[in-house]
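FAQ

Q: What does a record look like?
A: Structure on top, sequence underneath. For example:
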């Protein structure tokens, strides 16, 4: 099989690319995804994220693990990642957050020319179909439906009030002029039509509506084993599907969109990466690119959890399960209610130090008990609040465990390896404790599930004993122009022709917020960069190496 563009990975970025590149009926595109269609009930019903995130069983979830983390008492961290069309947008909490504008300006200053805030904003707008309508900072006509929560739980309103009791101002738009403050998340959820209240994953937004295009081939349940190369030019992808190998050839480009873990793994399996790492696993070195798999960054998350004295939260006891059943029936009729909830309903962006120029902490307030990614269940009503440090200094890596494409990658986030991270996270935990002990939450507050004596030593011990990811790994194929960069500002892999990486792995640094919306933005802009190269092939007068101006 031969097409113009082969896209490896049907996650958030891959779905966007499949749609945008196939808009021209003369351009042929093949999208390859290891998982299924992303259409099942567990994906469509927002509350069912609780059934997928634990990886027990592995439903739409790669369910990966880190190496033992010295900063977390030697524990191995759990890393849920979406498997199926839509990728992690099919199993996440649907939270629509772009980060702070200065994060993108920092990318550009670090060598990612053309990725500053003014350059990327038009692509956020192009993607977004916000229920609030069009404005200078929001799009209304994009494929990705963004909705307000219709029936947030009373306790979430109380959380926002508790934040106000701690001098955290109310904010009704974290993607507006000011990020700082407390309020309700907007969510990637259908807000109108027959799918109202269902999850709007990247697949539901970008791929499912165009599956009938004759120039778009979508192959699911197919694992990419390696890229095929002719010298130092990518020519296609070797996949395994139903026990058989198949070669998908690319006339123009191969685009790797397998995520912060999968993209560097596939490059290395194909002989592109740090030479010593490749030789260790018996892989012939095609191109020594030392930055592949380096610069891994993630948001380490610490959770405080309480049992609830009131029943209007999520519980796994018999009464709570009956309430969920009734909520499911309500959701089928109206598209609203508890089943439509992202569960992580409330948010706050704040500063660990008033002297900082922008928020460095984020709270996620959840209307149920979250313990070990839902791998440890509690048969009681309860609620949780998370805090993460938005711009950690710790840097980890992704490598290979073996040369076997079926083996999981070696993931080492190196949590808390930089001594600057723990004090800031502890300050965030102290603020979160104060919010959760505030009067507004008194009607719900029962016993704390993991109490400690309140000392700094005890808090540090609890963080090291229980903290883990909040699912935002980035940076392992970063944009840049230095020796450790993997892609150039046009997302082309340094030293290999016909090959790009387009996903969260290209982020030079973590943005100050959730990473799904930025990943979709990256793919929207990448589509324009790829199509500009196609135009240049047809017209030698156009310079394909020139980055597009914002909005082109």
């Amino acid at each position: 099989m031969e097409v113009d563009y082969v896209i490896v990975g049907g996650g958030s970025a891959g779905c966007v690319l499949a749609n945008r590149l196939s808009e021209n009926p003369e351009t042929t595109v093949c999208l390859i995804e290891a998982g299924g269609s992303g259409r099942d009930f567990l994906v469509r019903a927002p509350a069912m994220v609780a059934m997928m995130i634990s990886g027990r069983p592995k439903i739409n979830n790669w369910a990966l693990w880190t190496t033992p983390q010295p900063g977390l008492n030697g524990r191995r961290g759990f890393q849920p990642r979406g498997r199926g069309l839509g990728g992690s947008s099919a199993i996440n909490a649907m939270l629509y957050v772009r980060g702070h504008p200065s994060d993108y300006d920092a990318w550009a200053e670090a060598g990612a020319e053309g990725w500053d805030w003014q350059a990327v904003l038009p692509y956020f707008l192009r993607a977004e179909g916000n229920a609030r309508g069009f404005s200078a900072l929001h799009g209304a006509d994009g494929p990705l439906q963004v909705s307000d929560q219709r029936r947030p739980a009373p306790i979430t309103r109380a959380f926002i009030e508790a934040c106000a009791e701690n001098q955290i101002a109310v904010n009704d738009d974290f993607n507006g002029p000011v990020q700082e403050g407390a309020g309700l998340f907007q969510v990637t959820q259908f807000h109108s039509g027959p799918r109202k209240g269902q999850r709007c994953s990247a697949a539901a937004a970008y791929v499912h509506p165009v599956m009938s295009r004759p120039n778009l081939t979508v192959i699911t349940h197919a694992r990419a084993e390696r890229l095929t190369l002719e010298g130092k030019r990518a020519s296609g992808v070797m996949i395994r599907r139903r026990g058989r190998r198949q070669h998908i050839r690319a006339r123009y480009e191969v685009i790797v969109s397998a995520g912060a873990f999968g993209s560097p793994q596939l490059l290395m399996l194909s002989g592109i990466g740090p030479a010593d790492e490749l030789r260790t696993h018996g892989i012939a070195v095609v191109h020594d690119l030392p930055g592949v798999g380096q610069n891994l960054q993630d948001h380490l998350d610490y959770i405080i959890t309480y049992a609830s004295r009131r029943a209007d939260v999520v519980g796994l006891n018999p009464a709570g399960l009956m309430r969920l059943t009734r909520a499911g029936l309500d959701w089928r009729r109206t598209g609203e209610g508890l089943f439509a909830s992202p569960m992580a309903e409330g948010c706050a962006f704040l500063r660990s130090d008033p002297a900082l120029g922008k928020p460095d902490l984020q709270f996620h307030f959840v209307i149920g008990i979250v313990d070990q990614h839902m791998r440890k269940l509690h048969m009681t009503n309860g609620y949780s609040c998370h805090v993460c440090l938005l711009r950690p200094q710790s840097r980890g890596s992704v490598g290979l465990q073996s040369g076997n494409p079926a083996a999981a990658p070696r993931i080492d986030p190196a949590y808390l390896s930089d001594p600057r991270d723990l004090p800031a996270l502890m300050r965030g935990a102290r603020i979160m404790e104060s919010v959760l002990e505030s009067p507004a939450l008194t009607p719900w507050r029962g016993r704390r599930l993991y109490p400690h004596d309140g000392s700094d030593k005890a808090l540090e011990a609890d963080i090291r004993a229980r903290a883990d990811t909040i699912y935002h790994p980035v940076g392992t194929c970063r944009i840049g122009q230095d020796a450790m960069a993997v892609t150039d500002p046009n997302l082309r892999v340094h030293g290999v022709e016909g090959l790009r990486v387009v996903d969260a792995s290209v982020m030079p640094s973590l943005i100050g917020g959730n990473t799904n919306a930025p990943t979709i933005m990256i793919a929207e802009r990448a589509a324009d960069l790829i199509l500009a190269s196609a135009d240049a092939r047809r017209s030698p007068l156009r310079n394909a190496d020139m980055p597009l101006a914002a909005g082109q």
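Q: Is there anything notable about this one?
A: The longest strand covers residues 244-256.
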